[in-house]
Amino acid sequence: MGAPLHNRNAVGNRGGKGHPPKYRPEYASPEVTSLCLLGADNKRLADHFGVHESQISRWIKRHIEFAQAVNDGRLIADGKVVASLYRRACGYTFRRPKGELVHVPSDTTAAIFWLCNRNRDLWKRGDSGHRAVEQAEKRDRLRELWSALQPAPEEPLSAPERKPS
Predict the structure, then answer these.
(1) Tens digit of pLDDT for each residue in 145-165?
(2) Residues 6+ apart with CB under 8 A from 5
(3) What's the rounded mean pLDDT across residues 3-30?
(4) Is residue 153, in this structure, part of any structural domain at all?
(5) Residue 158 falls within a domain, yes or no?
């Protein structure tokens, strides 16, 4: 049984002589942001600070500056992954160091993953049929928009003419 609520000298009551707080303001630092940029979840942050995972969750709820540092790192990391997934889903072209142009075709799996997570109502798998008409209309509209965004077919490149020597 705990100490009476208004007993200021009881261990654990606020204002009493309980344990000092484990959180320190310097924890909300670029170091936390960097850890989150590297993919650290609450468990890894807890290991870093030597506390339990639930303590990290409490710090995020109670200390705005700590939550901001954690969220900044996670948002940047998530943004990089989203950009990479999007490029992979759509395909991309890059130039190798020697100047060779390389095209990486679109990846169907990445596209499905992107669409299923980006717009769940429209692209979820195993649809039970409810709202099927509404979803079909959205898909038709998406097809129209997509076809409008497609570039005109290009003429195939012909080999450069060589002058006789």
Answers:
(1) 767 776 666 655 555 566 665
(2) 13
(3) 68
(4) no
(5) no
Helix (H, G, I), strand (E, B) or coil at 132: helix
- Rounded to an integer, what distance in angstroms lies between the CA atom of residue 128 and that of residue 122? 12
**Tokens standing for 28?**
């909300």
Distance (Å, rounded) from C-alpha 114 to C-alpha 129? Answer: 22
Torsion of CA 138, 140, 142, 146, to 10 degrees: 180
Asked whether 125 and 115 are in contact (CB, 8 A), the reply is no
Average pLDDT over residues 7-14: 56
- Total domain count for the chain? 1
Domain-embedded: residue 115:
no
In a domain, 50, yes or no: yes
Could you count the other beta carbons within 10 Å of the beta carbon of residue 4?
A: 9
Which residue range is the domain that position 83 belongs to? Answer: 21-90
Evaluate whether 8 touches 16 at the Cβ level (below 8 Å).
yes
CA atoms within 13 A on the CB side of 49: 26
pLDDT digits (tens, 9 = 90+) for 116-127: 877 777 676 665
Of 5, 76, 6, 89, the C-alpha closest to 34 is 76
